[in-house]
Design a protein that fits this description.
The chain is α/β, with parallel strands linked by helices and 296 residues long. It has 13 helices and twelve strands.
Length: 296
């Protein structure tokens, strides 16, 4: 062990992610770290171990023989850490002691009664519409649990427990005076390719809805439609109502908006590829189970 740096679980997480993605670029997107920061941690880890762990080439990062051995060690160590955290958290604790974060759209439209009743009981409750404002403090240990879209599990670092809470479809929301809708969407279920025919208005990329739309189009290998970004949800609905813009919303939010203006707005369900899944992420089973019990 030749390096001056002490080994850390952060280094192990970075090493494991690069091993699995075989790419510093892809790992950078998942871990929310810059590529130079990831490269530095890998070099620090190699200096600490005293062995080259990766073979670097234009095709990416491949584990060396010693890298494979170290990968087994790193994954086992993180599994032991998960077990230890669970054992520590097996002690009796109060729900009120949990530091929790939740997306605004989830607290307002999926579990409103819970958060209205519990807002003054929890030790700390963070509510935001920026998903990475929850993931970052969770990764840093400042939040014990977060309730976010399940698809963001790849951005969480370290051991965690994930339980699915809810699933719902996405809908296109449009103005009933938008004459393009019946002409361009013939089926009862709209497809990604149908969205290409419209101008789409969404909250900026920090919004999980926006990110989910981009992920689905990339996964289906379909070109994105023209997207106009807007910071205000009510302005988004106003633009949709008074123009040819359309937006995409989860069912719970879409129904809320439609019922406020049933004469002016319509909605059409999107294909299953767009379905939304919401999960609670916690650092121990006890924390997750306690939250699920309170939500029931």
């Amino acid at each position: 062990m030749n390096g001056n740096e002490n080994i850390s679980f952060d280094m192990l997480n970075v090493f494991i992610k690069v091993s699995e993605t075989k790419s510093i670029n892809q790992s950078s997107k998942v871990l929310l770290l810059t590529q130079p920061a990831i490269s530095k941690k890998i070099y620090q880890l190699e200096a600490y171990v005293g062995q080259q762990l990766f073979t670097r080439s234009s095709q990416g990062m491949a584990l060396t023989y010693n890298g494979h051995i170290f990968y087994i060690f790193a994954t086992q160590m993180l599994a032991e850490l998960t077990k230890t955290i669970d054992e520590i958290n097996n002690k009796i604790f109060s729900f009120n002691d949990i530091n929790m974060g939740v997306l605004d759209s989830i607290s307002s439209f999926l579990f409103p009664n819970f958060f209205v009743n519990k807002v003054y009981e929890l030790q700390n409750l963070e509510v935001t519409n920026k998903v990475f404002d929850l993931i970052k403090p969770f990764n840093e240990g400042k939040l014990d649990a977060i309730i976010i879209d399940s698809s963001f599990s790849e951005n969480i670092i370290g051991p965690y427990v994930q339980n699915n809470l809810f699933e719902e479809p996405y809908y296109i929301v449009y103005s009933k005076s938008n004459t393009k809708i019946p002409k361009l969407i013939k089926d009862s279920i709209a497809k990604a390719i149908d969205l290409q025919k419209f101008k789409l208005v969404l909250l900026p990329m920090y919004c999980p809805i926006h990110q989910q739309v981009v992920k689905v189009f990339n996964r289906l290998n379909v070109a994105l439609p023209e997207i106009f970004e807007n910071d205000y949800s009510e302005l988004t609905i106003s633009l949709v109502k008074n123009s040819d813009f359309v937006t995409v919303l989860p069912e719970s939010i879409a129904i809320n908006k439609i019922t406020q203006d049933m004469n002016g707005l319509g909605m059409k369900r999107l294909e299953i590829a767009f379905n939304r899944s919401v999960s609670v992420f916690g650092r121990s089973k006890n924390i997750v189970n306690e939250i699920e019990k309170e939500l029931a």
